[in-house]
Design a protein that fits this description.
Elements lengths: L2 E4 L6 H12 L2 E4 H10 L3 H11 L6 H13 L7 E4 L5 H13 L6 E6 L2 H15 L6 H23 L4 E5 L4 H12 L2
Parallel strand pairs: 1-3, 1-4, 2-3, 4-5
This protein binds adenosine monophosphate (AMP).
The site of adenosine monophosphate has 17 residues, from helix 2 and helix 3.
Length: 187
């Protein structure tokens, strides 16, 4: 099963991705984590993207598309991909479609965890204390939320026509969201 978790920063995509990885013996593709790792290792990509990430802006489609290509093509991970934070633009969504076609895969579910701005801000403030992420300060959170809203609207329109697109209230408790996801995948 391949699944996309879609939703604003702080919607709980990472938490649900980790649950799905365990349940389905799958692999989490968190572009945010991959990018943070590049910064930590101070790679050429890391140097290019740190400004954007710390400023709450998106990293270029080209960089992100390149980073996920090998993972989608990895035969060991075939049909066990949990996308967390990708795709985030229409170009990325189309790129993913092409990579899946080329590798004879498809997306089984797109779960849209929908949460309002206020809930997000509260959650991310708490996460800042726990994880101390540099892009989790209040100004950056607001920018990240606004960037998400502007850029991902076309992605939402693109996927929401699909039968496997499922909107879930992301302001629910973690366990309740998990239960809802389970009702779709446990068939
Ligand atoms: P996340 O951990 O998913 O909240 O991502 C943290 C940051 O990484 C985002 O605010 C963006 O700057 C960058 N990022 C992560 N995924 C993507 C993506 N698919 N496209 C562009 N930028 C991304």
């Amino acid at each position: 099963m391949n699944i996309i978790l879609f939703g604003p920063p702080g919607a709980g995509k990472g938490t649900q991705a980790k649950y799905l990885v365990k349940k389905l013996n799958a692999f989490q593709i968190s572009t945010g984590e991959i990018l943070r790792e590049e910064i930590k290792k101070n790679t050429e990509i890391g140097k290019k993207i740190s400004y954007n990430i710390n400023d709450g802006k998106f990293v270029s489609d080209e960089i992100v598309n390149n980073l996920i290509k090998d993972i989608v093509f990895d035969i060991k991970k075939k049909d066990r991909l949990i996308f967390d934070g990708y795709p985030r633009s229409l170009t990325q969504a189309k790129n993913l479609n092409q990579l899946l076609d080329e590798t004879k895969q498809k997306i089984d579910f797109i779960f849209f965890l929908n949460v309002n701005k206020e809930t997000i801000l509260n959650r991310i403030r708490k996460r800042k204390v726990l994880e101390n992420r540099s892009d989790d300060d209040s100004d950056t959170i607001i920018k990240r939320y606004d960037t998400y809203m502007e850029t991902t609207k076309p992605v939402l329109d693109y996927y929401s026509k699909n039968q496997n697109f499922k909107e879930i209230d992301g302001s629910l408790e973690i366990d309740e969201i998990t239960r809802k996801i389970d009702t779709f995948i446990n068939v």
